[in-house]
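FIELD: query
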Amino acid sequence: MAKQKLIDKIEKPIRDLIKILRENGFNTFCSCGHLPHPYIQMEWYEDIEVTKLYGLLIENKYKNFLIRATWDSSLNKRVLEISFCYITQPVVNLDSIKEKQ
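FIELD: result
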């Protein structure tokens, strides 16, 4: 039950993706669901895991994303970040950046 309460504290636009990432072994620790550029930060992973991360995003129909390595000066370490871009029109939540089935 406590786990469900923790996930409920995550902003709704990115909650489902955080759940998918954590269920697949990606330790997320920072996120923002606000437009126009929501993002999720997680621990640094080697190339093979980044490939798995990319596949996971594609498999779950996410698009218009960028995976990048960045330096977090507050943590004093390298982290991975997924950010989403909206080029043509603003959207209300991440559901609109998923491909329609």
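FIELD: remark
The radius of gyration is 13 Å.
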